[in-house]
Amino acid sequence: MAGASAVFIMDMKGKVIISRNYRGEVPMNITERFQQHVIDAEDAAIKPVFCEDGISFAWIQYNNLYLLAVTQRNSNATLIVAFLYRLAEVLRDYFNELEEESIKDNFVITYELLDEMMDNGYPQTTEVKILREYIKTQSHQLSVEQMRPPTAVTNAVSWRSDGIKHKKNEIFLDVVERLNLLVSANGSVLRSEILGALKMKSYLSGMPELKLGLNDKLLFEATGRPVAKGKSVEMEDIKFHQCVQLARFENDRTISFIPPDGEFELMSYRLNTHVKPLIWVEAVVDPGHSRSRIEYMIKAKSQFKSRSVANNVEIHIPVPSDVDSPSFKTSIGTVRYIPDQDCIVWSIKQFQGQKDFIMTANFGLPSVGADNRDAYMKAPMSVKFEIPYFTVSGVTVRYLKIVEKSGYQALPWVRYITQNGDYQLRMV
Amino acid sequence: MVAMRQKQNDGKFFQTTKRGEIQELKEELHANDKQKQKDAVKKVIANMTVGKDVSALFADVVNCIQTDNVELKKLVYLYVMNYAKAQPELAILAINTFRKDAKDANPLIRSLAVRTMGCIRLDQVTEYLLEPLRRCCQDHDPYVRKTSAICIPKVYDINPELVEDQGFVEILKDLLGDGNPMVVANAVAGLAEISQTCGRDLLDLDKGNIPKLLAALNECNEWGQVFILDALATYDPSGPSDAESISERVTARLSHANPAVVLTAIKVILRCMEHTENPEVLRMLAKKLNPPLVTLLSSEPEVQYVALRNIRLIVQKRPGILASDVKMFFCKYNDPIYVKLEKVDIMCMLVSDKNFDQVLLELKEYASGVDVEFVRKSVRSIGRVAVKLERACERAMNVLLELIETKVNYVVQESCVVVKDIFRKYPSRYEQVLSALCESMEVLDEPEAKASMIWILGEYAGRIDNSDELLESFLDSFHDEPLMVQMQLLTAIVKLFLQKPSSTQDMVSKVLQCATEESTNHDLRDRGYIYWRLLATNPEATKRVVLGDKPSLRDDSQSVDKNLLEKLSSELSLMSSVYHKYAEEFVTRLAVTPSGADEKAQDDDLDEEDRQASRREVQEELERGPDAGRNGSGGLDLLDLGMGDDSPPRTSGAAPAVQKVAVLPPTQAGQHGNTGFAVSAAFVRQRGSPTLMMTFSNSSSGPLGGFAIQVNKNPFGFAPTQQIACPEIMSGSSAEVAVVMTPGQLMSNTPPTNPLLLQVAIKTSLDIFYFHVQFDLSAVLVESGALTRDDFTPIWQRVGEAGQKVAMISMARPMDAEAVKAQLAADNVHYVAQRQVDDGSVLLYTSSQTPNNCTVLSEVAVSPGSSSLKVSIRTETQVLMPLYEAMLSRRFG
Known about the structure:
The structure holds two protein chains of two kinds. In chain A, 15% of the residues lie in helices and 41% in strands. By secondary structure, chain A is an alpha+beta fold. In chain A, strand 4 and strand 5 form a beta hairpin. The radius of gyration of chain A is 26 Å and the shape is globular. The mean pLDDT of chain A is 89. Chain B is globular, with a radius of gyration of 36 Å. Chain B has five domains: 232 residues, Alpha Horseshoe (Leucine-rich Repeat Variant), CATH 1.25.10; 95 residues, Serine Threonine Protein Phosphatase 5, Tetratricopeptide repeat (Alpha Horseshoe), CATH 1.25.40; 101 residues; 115 residues, Immunoglobulin-like, CATH 2.60.40; 113 residues, 2-Layer Sandwich (TATA-Binding Protein), CATH 3.30.310. In chain B, a hairpin with a 2-residue loop joins strand 2 and strand 3. By secondary structure, chain B is α+β, with helices and mostly antiparallel strands. Chain B has a five-stranded antiparallel β-sheet with strand order 1-2-3-6-5, with no helix packed on it. A five-stranded antiparallel β-sheet of chain B has the order 9-13-12-11-10, sandwiched between helices. In chain B, strands 4-7-8 form a three-stranded antiparallel β-sheet, with no helix packed on it. Chain B is 52% helix and 10% strand. The N terminus of chain B is likely disordered. Chains A and B meet through strand 2, strand 4, helix 2, helix 3 and helix 4 of A and helix 2, helix 4, helix 6, helix 8 and helix 11 of B.
């Protein structure tokens, strides 16, 4: 076991912005090796976890920064990578943006956080809401007498402090589903996967205990209750925020928890069901005879109920890198050519269900063609969209019970939304 | 209004770069204004952050340590932590404050003091830390106790004896029973780390304390859960019911959002599965592992990479798991390349008669992509699928055919290699691809692709009409081709000749001539001669040899050796599981302390008893030597040596523990392309005979036997005195083999190279392997090389100053003349005479001889207290000079 020997935050050139040596085992100029193996290396040779001369490197990239941890023991690699992501999240939460400037402007707090979040290489408290209670930015600086480690740091409820008060007790629950989809050129769905998440914003006083009921198929089966109305959903794998009592869920599939205050993700789930593409795009490319023009005919079709509407639809279509003089014709939305991404984007603000639209695009091509002009065909088309009041899996919230010993009444608000995930349609 | 957080603007502290800055900072640090003082400390830390050395300010910064501002205190602590090593005396100044803070009323300050002291890695500080640490382990605040628990391994790292003597290991064990889950988790982490360092299992998990850990598992934070799960994975359940109850408690963790918790929990469950045989339970557990493993593929790419490397092990270990989820491993367009490459490997592991259609379609899609590296991998994977599944072969061949027709350079080259493998696995099938291959032959420029194409041409010479023309086109540029291609071309033309003897007579004699007369490569020459002689003596027998059935090809390039797999499946999620290597292979920097200590004892603290023992050993060693006449001929004066004041530092110079080096890695293929045999070797003189000491390791899947050795001609003509006597080696084990060499047998009549090399071929039941061993001149020099003064002088004068080379040899530590003599004797550099010079130094005259009677003489000047030797070498065989010098450097360095 054992954790990290040292942690570094570097810029894209590998220059260290800030670092913390936890165990004094590894020379701090070790980042030169990192440059060699990551920054100066060829793409195919880069690995996020690698070993060089007895020292293991694990790193992530976040915006324009590298976060690197090194160790010379047989440490838990997943733990280290997961910690780096958590570190990035905490810093981003503290500084709004995580980038070189924000770290320099806040180097004192960064050091404090590095000291508190990891000790001797072992991750400790990484819950940002709790950290904020005793590591403060300047304007809220406390004197020694006022400052105590929150009991939450070591409590079984390590994510919520005592004595939280809100004037209005409310809780918001968003069910957000992202659809990952890969469709072959002939229209068959190669892979479809739904990644769902229940995101909460909790503004509740005291120590409330919540119970959440979903139309979970296994729950219905377990209780032997017939499904009252609508269908039930079988979620393949569920991951919970640490506030959920896992043992309880394992026993009787009850989701019961004491929520952290503010925003958090309560749970995520995955469904591996076959889904018809919600928005189906077909491209007919006519390269023309003379190879001096290229013409696209794009057909987009919405395959969800006509009551629903997809908002902010963007269809990205790859084009050759050397096209010029674009001209577009469409019955709805707008089309833009984005040269540095070698694609055109067809944007449709509102796309009603059960409709189809056609867009045509025309480009000129230089007579001297680029070497691998056909390479653009390898990149898939992708689609972005958001459909409110709708979950593609059919997951619904049956109840959200809130019990607090003071007995206040709290209002739960529930919303549903389905978005694109990795939503790709191959052109050839 | 929403309270806006005031923007921190500490960036300004980085800006000053004036001269005399240190002095300025010094003044500011002593300012009365608290804010100014704090800003000054910030400036110091900012300087430290950008890598400037501000350790000169140590005393001034420590001066600010007495403060009730937590932020300032933390900064000063951070500074002390960083520079204590540079200013150990001054670091002591801070100790009192640390000790005082460790008693502070505020638990935050108490913890901070203990945590920081633990990070000051100085022995002097550690002493003062013990008492506060002991107190803080009993603190009423759990925050302080959890910090103290993690502090104990820090101190252990600096001074293990102290920690054990002072009973801190026991304290840590007591903390396992603490009421607070975080304290328990940190105690587990601490004990696990100390166990790893000292090599004893201090966690001592048994039915008594497992329930405590399981209880803490439910309550501690996510990282604590990982510490506990990692520890649980080292526990061997007492039986099926124990295993089942643990896995039952751990399965709930599979629903945790943190991937480290999930993967580590999977490890524990897989461990428990080892201890139960109930098929129902096994099936149920395996089913529970599928979904969380797939979900890991939706996490961040770096986590995915670790998960994928682990999934490879899991799938090999428990083939049922993920068997129906191959689609989940299909690559996304925007996956990073390292994820894609791993996914494709797993696709090949999961491919079956049920899903090969989908998999091949997907691989074909990747093979027409744009990323060259990934395209190549995909084409190779199509070949692996075909070799693995006979039923998929037809389909795979069709895909390859389509790919070859694209005429994309690297796709064709890679396909060529793959087709060769398929032909090897399924001979005489799918010949429709031959014409397509022949048509795209001109694009081949990579050695492996060319060699494969040539192999195919030779193998199918009878069925390709113009195979002779095609092969001839390669023959013209024979000498420009890399060895791999030359070898294949030689074999292929011989095959062609055997199938079409009438028209290819000229070609075969040309290629044999190229290989045997014009080439400088031994392997190629040997192979050429073998074919030549075979053809000359018995063409029918040649046919049986060259065109005979070949062993079938198996694809296990991606599978992990069984022993390694066992080890790694209990180390999932750890670094070793990512590298697929034993931890010992890469955890090299943690020097094992005991051996280091031994060495030290030998060098410096040799007490009288040891010295006598070592003298006895030297004496015995010398007496055992084969050359009894040596003493008489004025060689070593044993009596003199025995009575010398200073004993030789190395106890038995003639037979030190032989350091073997890896000469053949297990990944290096033999003549027929098989791998799995590794050799480490050393060629040294033992008991008066040059001996090749080897360790054979078998990492192939079956037993290895039928060992035989051959060495290439060499300057001293070494040849094995007898054949290897080595019993069969089972898969995963190794054996020690020593082969005595006789000089003067296989003379190459070439001058010796520097360094000296012995080229060795080992025949095994698996394949024939070639490697070479570097050796020292000391393996060559004979025991009987001592000259009398009368023989010495004429040669010394004959060579004269003109043929003399002077070398300075540096020694690890100064030695006197007697010690030097003994050292030289260990390498068969024999003492002839000595002379005292006025300045107190001693000149030693030595002689040594090679088996072919080349003599090397030297004058070694030993100056008292100097740690270098001046050596004047005279020999009539000039080529030996650098070798002689190198030998002495190694002996004394």
